[in-house]
Amino acid sequence: MKLGFRSKIYLGLFSLLLLLGIVILFVVSMIMKEALLEENKNRGISIGSTLAARMAEPVLAMDFFRMKTLVDETVRLSDDIFYTFVLNDKGKPLVHTFKGGFPIELKEANSVSDIHKYSIRLLDTGKQLIYDYAFPVIIDKDRFGTIRLGLLRTKIQEAINRLWWSTFLSTGIVIIIAIFVGTAVAVPVTRRVKILHKSSEQALMGNLDTQTAPLLKKNCWEIMNCNKKECPAYGKIHQRCWYLVGTLCPNCVEGEYAQKILSCINCQVYQKCAGDEIQSLAESFSSMTLSLKTHLSELQNSEKILKEQRQLLKTVLDATPDFVSLQDIKSVYLAANKSFCDLVGRGEQEIIGRTDYDLFPKGQAERYLKEDLEILKSGKPMVKESNISGFNGSKWLHMVKIPVYEADGKMRGLLCSGRDITELKRIQEQLAQAQKMESIGQLVAGIAHEINTPMGIVLGYAQLLLEEVKPESQAYNDLKIIEKQTRICKKIVADLLRFSRRTESTMSPLNINDTIEDVLSVVEHTFKLDRVSLVRRLEPDLPAIVGDKEKLKQAFINLVNNAFDAIIGEGKITISTHYDVQLDEVIISVLDTGHGIPPRKIDRIFDPFYTTKPVGKGTGLGLAVTFGIIQEHNGKIEVESPPLFTINEKEENSQGTLFAIHLPISGKKNKMEIDHVKHIGIR
């Protein structure tokens, strides 16, 4: 378990004081021990020297009584004087203080020369330690004997022990007092540090409203008698005015902490409210969290705006029909809009971080990489049209690649934008085909005009010859064939002239049902002969439309004849009309039970000179003329083969063709369409 800050302070303080106490105890003990030993030494020297001086006369006179009296008096001076005895110049004891007899070993235990004043030795008797002092007895430079003095070490050791315990207790008391004093100092420090710690944890968890600065006895507005409630510091009891920006005090310098702190040091508010380092730390922390909260709020607002702008930009880019992509200088994709994703058939996450080699065939990717390197090298944009084959088939694209630069002028990558111009290419092809057909039409008109006169002559002479020959003769049959084929040729020429010439239309209100009846009454008898029935489903009370009746008849005749030609054997042609209220248009439909139109040919049936009929059965101009007539009436025509919906839900038709003509009532122009019908609103 890890120790807390307070425990570390206590442990450190206790360890420091204990170490200091041990050092002091050791040092004081050694000093006192040395002092006591030195004092004991000097005391022994003093006693021995005095005794040696007093013993000179009795030794010289060999006055044993007096010598005995002097050694006894010396022993009685202190309890620690263990013995005293006198040796003559021969080393023999003269007097001593031992009660049980003189120990012979002691005589040689210590000696002193004539040139020394004394000699000290520590003797160990096995029970006691004794300091043995030896002093020479000198009279007129002649030595007459030796004084020996023994002081017990036990007394000195007891004194040392008493001194050591006194020092130990004193040091312990001092340590205990220091611990209490340190605790009194550490508790406020650790408490404030703990507050800072909790506040930092709250800040880490996102709570930037935590307060660490202590409350003051008086705040700045109270000290300065200020009533400026609009001041940023007013009422902020946990924040200091010298940390805040834009304070209204006349003595404050404008700016943040770094600019104003020098002027605030001399302010009476700062001098009265500023605390120690921990208080300053707590105040700085509070200001820091406030600043972080402000900056975080600004960042969040900026992030929100950026996110909205980014989303708006993405929405705009995804909504545009043009595809847009951004690559870095290594051709790695950094961004792509929805059109680009649809183009390559992948999601955005599958594109970002990939290269062209991951999205396109190898040959195509190598070509793109070569182009990108050339643009990056030259710094010039590239504009091109290319045909690509992707997941959605072959497409024509108009592409623009431009280098993108950063603010410092460093090239960032390539921006590629483009547009699918497949439809434009198709229209261009159709336009070219139309121009070609226009030229052909002009040529055909001239040829048809030149052929029409000779064909009329041939037909006339053939008819005249028929009147001259017998009907049962071979010549009559040959002439009938000539007449028939000549009439076919004249019909082809008439169709060509009708297709190539643009005649003025006579527009007037008409009933579409009556116009259709005029057409059906002409062909109905002929169709019945070939077992093809006409079924009318004409909605009554249709609103009148404005159009050219004769041209519309021609369009209806073409559709009915096409339906008749598509039926092999017995069949049925259903003609219906319907008014669509929402679209405000009349819908005319022609449904046959014929062999239908192959899917690969259905998109070309309105092209001039294109026909699905066998050779000799049609010119390929009927539907083209019909298309032109409907277009002239601002309508549209749709075709479906086989039909998805029958005119009558009870009828089932797995083959056949359905043509639907939409003619507006109000005269508004509809876009001409050649499309597969999904639902034309016929009931």
Write the layout of secondary structure elements.
Blueprint: H1 5-61, H2 64-76, E1 81-88, E2 93-96, H3 104-107, E3 119-124, E4 129-139, E5 142-152, H4 153-204, H5 220-223, H6 257-264, H7 268-273, H8 277-319, E6 323-328, E7 333-336, H9 338-344, H10 348-351, H11 356-359, H12 362-378, E8 382-390, E9 393-405, E10 411-420, H13 422-468, H14 474-500, E11 508-510, H15 512-529, E12 532-538, E13 545-547, H16 549-566, E14 571-580, E15 585-592, H17 622-632, E16 636-640, E17 658-664
Parallel strand pairs: 12-14
Antiparallel strand pairs: 1-2, 1-5, 3-4, 4-5, 6-7, 6-10, 8-9, 9-10, 11-13, 14-15, 15-17, 16-17
Helix pairs in contact: 1-2, 1-4, 4-8, 13-14, 15-16, 16-17
Report what the structure shows.
With 683 residues, the protein is of the alpha+beta class. It has 5 domains: 5-164, Beta-Lactamase, CATH 3.30.450.20; 208-298, no CATH class; 320-419, PAS domain (Beta-Lactamase, 2-Layer Sandwich), CATH 3.30.450; 427-498; 506-676, Histidine kinase-like ATPase, C-terminal domain (Heat Shock Protein 90), CATH 3.30.565.10. Helices cover 50% and strands 18% of the residues. It has 17 helices and 17 strands. The protein has helices at 5-61, 64-76, 104-107, 153-204, 220-223, 257-264, 268-273, 277-319, 338-344, 348-351, 356-359, 362-378, 422-468, 474-500, 512-529, 549-566, 622-632; strands spanning 81-88, 93-96, 119-124, 129-139, 142-152, 323-328, 333-336, 382-390, 393-405, 411-420, 508-510, 532-538, 545-547, 571-580, 585-592, 636-640, 658-664. The strands form 4 sheets. Strands 2-1-5-4-3 form a 5-stranded antiparallel sheet. Strands 7-6-10-9-8 form a 5-stranded antiparallel sheet, with helices on both faces. Strands 12-14-15-17-16 form a 5-stranded mixed sheet, with helices on one face. Helix 15 (512-529) runs parallel beside helix 16. The radius of gyration is 65 Å and the shape is rod-shaped.
